[in-house]
## 1
Amino acid sequence: MALNLLMLGPPGAGKGTQAERFARSRGIPKISTGDILRVAVHAGTEVGRLAKAIMDRGELVGDDVMIEIVRERLDRPDTRGGFVLDGFPRTVAQAEALDRIMIGRDPLIVVDIPVPEAELVRRLASRLVCEKCGTTGVPTATACAMCGGHLVQRTDDNASVVLDRLRVYERQSRPLVDYYQERPTFRSIDGAQTPDGVAADLAAAIEAAGAALGGRA
């Protein structure tokens, strides 16, 4: 059975770090709409320019654009053994579209990673990303561990925009938990732990969700 994992949680919950770590351990692709959009922004494409203006305001890119990006990516051969989705869906409309995309595939395992707001603000206000490849760094680092690029604060990580992003998440994305939580493959873990603690709980949650499907994830 293919391991199809969807990770939910607010900005700053550590979804990207955990998604990358888990995908690498299982040899499946991590699919991040944020990464795809950053490539478009860096290349200066029409979609990239539009997305940059929206993200700089702390808003979310529209459903139609994001759905098509994900549909195309999930059609590639490397997803047949499974994948980890990070950053999609962000609205119930996107989740409904994802359910249609997933018809004929193995079920999604959905893991939510909640974190208290005060901790999210602290994390995001101190977060640095590589201006070259988009990898998240740490406040004490001077260069990207992946490519050696310069680490900078994202324009949507300043304190005022962070609070706006969290409000947008609560309004538009929080209903996703309600959408998924009755499914036997839904799990929630504490995102306020250390990264290693979150990773251990994530692995256990996926194992339990796989068992609920009658198999092992």
Note: The mean pLDDT is 85.
## 2
Amino acid sequence: MLASGRRSNLYVDARLTTMSPDGLVLTGRLGLDAIREAGWQVDAVGGMTLGADPISYAIAFTSQLDGSPLRAFTVRKAAKQHGTGKRVEGPFESGDRVVVVEDVITTGGSARDAILAIREAGGVPVGVLAVVDRQEGGREVLEAEGLPVVSLTTAAEILELL
């Protein structure tokens, strides 16, 4: 069962890659390069915890090494009832132009939830970066809302390798 509630014959656990040492290096480099190639001028990267976290952190780390630092942040599923009560955590600032990060896009629901929280916190999403686009309509939903989507790979490309 997918986060969207759908059933699928293809399960993609991107965390096996994005949380491994080699995967962090690769994801950071490919993610930062994709942001630059898209021409997105942004201050920060982040998305829904847990899937987006290692990707965002890897991109932020790589951006620092390249001398053009981007901050990373995470979006909680719900605000905590104690502490700051924020949904967007980390060095995120109101007015930040951001890339919303996803590990896997299926319906676009998780990205849409993150976008809503980011906008409520004063952020300006300029695009969505996914490691994998399952090609099940999520890209089209997000693009219909005016956000360009870039994916590092697609379900079709993964299936070609199997």
Note: The chain has a mean pLDDT of 93.
## 3
Amino acid sequence: MNQAVFGAVVGIVGVVIGSFLTLLRETWSDSRMRARHARYLAIRVVCTLDKYVENCAEVVSDDGLCMGQRDKEGCLQAQVPTPPPLAFPDGLDWKSIDHALMYRLLSMPNEAEAADRKIDFVSQYVAGPPDFEEFFEERRDKYATLGLAAFALTQEMRTKYDIPQQTLGEWNPAERLAKAKEQVEKDRRDRMQRLAASPLL
């Protein structure tokens, strides 16, 4: 191989290696940028979800009494306002996280709206005074489910993106939600057993 050919080969190899190194550097830079965007998104979303979990726990703790008293008609009445569907902060780079996780997060507002529609139906057409038992039960069930789903997402994102756990005192929203869900399921099982044991008229 003469010197001219050798020089040309070396030049081509140098160009290829240089292009590869440039591509590698850009890929590494993009990966770091995406990781930063993902962690920023995770922190913002977890803070939003933490508040939503607390709101759901307040809803399931609502027994319909105001300072231990019924209303002037002797009825139970919701004391805790229903939280609005989740609204995540603007400007987040959703493409920076796993698509399955993104779907679970972005579908939560629709799930909350569907839950509210079911609760409204039970309130209008099923529940009756003075206790509106079916309304409060459906409300506890739906918001326990929503709150526990939101809490599960916070735990997953805290682990994946190295976000510290909340510092909780005596009030633990997740425990309250789990107990409420368990109680609703027990009440429904007991009701079904009573109905099954009742003699047919």
Note: Residues 55 and 83 are 6 Å apart (CA to CA).
